[in-house]
Amino acid sequence: MHHGGWVFGYGSLMWAPEFPVAEQVIAQADGWRRSFCLRSIQHRGTAEAPGLVLGLEAQPGHLCTGLALRVEAPLWPEVHAALRARELVTEAYREALVPLELADGRRVEALTYVMRPEHWQYCGGLGIEEQARIIASAHGGRGPNAEYLFNTAAHLDELGIPDDDIAALAAQVRALTAQRGSMSA
Length: 185
Hints:
Layout: E1 5-9, H1 12-15, E2 23-40, E3 51-71, H2 76-87, E4 93-102, E5 107-115, H3 128-137, E6 139-140, E7 143-144, H4 145-159, H5 164-181
Helix pairs in contact: 3-5, 4-5
C-alpha cells in the first residue's frame, strides 16, 4: 500500500491513535459490531484481574460506526508496524481489511483489528452488569479500565455517533465507581 492507507478506529484508536492522521472521517463498517469482548491483561487490566476492551465482532445485519483515519504514504510502513505492536500483543485480534462507507460517500478499504473468537481472551456475550463490574475495578499499564470506556463513550458523543450499548455501560460503571469512590472523591 505505497499510497498510504486507511485505518478503521472503533475504540481507543478514535481518541488515541498515536500516529499522524492526515484525514479523519466518520465511517461505517457493515456486518460488524463493537463490543467489550476482549479480556485485557496488559493495557487495561492484569493477568490476575483482567479488564475488558473493545473488539470488533462479525455480526450480519449490524453496522459499526467509527472513524476512518488516513495515513500518508511515506508514513504507512512505520504506522503499520506500530499498530501491529500495539494491537497484536497477545494475538487476540487478527488484522483484517474491511470495506467502509465514509460519511462523505467515499468507499475505502481500511485496516482494522477484529476479534478472534477462538482466542482464550475472547469473552463475548457477557451481560452488562458483569461487564460493568469488571470495568469498574480493572486497571492496567495504560490506566483504569473505566477511563478507556468513558473516553470511548465521550468521543462517540462528540462525533455524534450513537451507541446505546456503550452509553448504558458507561452509566452503569459511573454508578458503581461513584458508590465505591464516594470517600475518595
